[in-house]
Amino acid sequence: PGENASLTLEDAWMLHTVVAACHSYHEAMDSRRLNDAARAGYDCFWHEFCDWYLEALKTRLHGDDAAEKRTALLVALTVHAILLRVLHPFLPFLTEELWHQLGHHDSVHLQAWPHWNPELLVEEKQTMVVQVNGKVRDRVEVPVDISEDEAAEVALAAERVQGWIAGKTVR
User: What pLDDT sits at residue 101?
Assistant: First the structure.
């Protein structure tokens, strides 16, 4: 997608997911684990792209915002094209047919292999689960490099946790 496109959280998540799937695919292929490579492509295509992302797009595609529709279609077609190239070694006839149905006149196997920026795989934040007495009381977004002391401080300060620890000794 172009730099001027405003990506939604779903768009950014899907692009990150397809990059991670390509990375897993390449690691598996380099290790000659063909089943894992095929699984990485399949799981991303079916479980992430079809089951989740395309369902999330429906409201945007039926909305009135033309720019939002354009961005949604651009991301969906980009991800679809990448996944067809990734799956082609395992499903050549199916991916070729889908490629041509998208309006391409050349073969999918002649396309450049998907490239990505490895920095896109670096997670900056993670979800920390906060438990009190063995039960989940909150989830908090924290930097991945947070120290244990900082994590404890954030957990104790979480608003949903306050009612559970008020007047009690925290160990």
Answer: 93
Concatenated DSSP letters of 83-104: HHHHHTTT-HHHHHHHHHHTT-
Helix 66-87 crosses helix 34-43 at what angle (to 10 degrees)?
160
Quote the CA–CA distance of 6 and 3 in Å, as a whole number: 8
Phi, psi of 55 (to 5 degrees): -65, -40
Residues 29 and 22: their CA atoms lie apart, in Å, by: 10
The pLDDT value given to residue 131: 85
Residue 122 has phi, psi (to 5 degrees) of -75, 120
As a whole number of angstroms, the distance between CA 131 and CA 146 comes to 18
Answer whether 5's CB lies under 8 Å from 74's CB. Answer: yes
Angstrom distances, CA of residue 120 to CA of 24, 79, 95: 14, 15, 26
Contacts 24+ apart (CB under 8 A), 95-103: 102/77
Percentage with pLDDT > 90 across the chain: 40
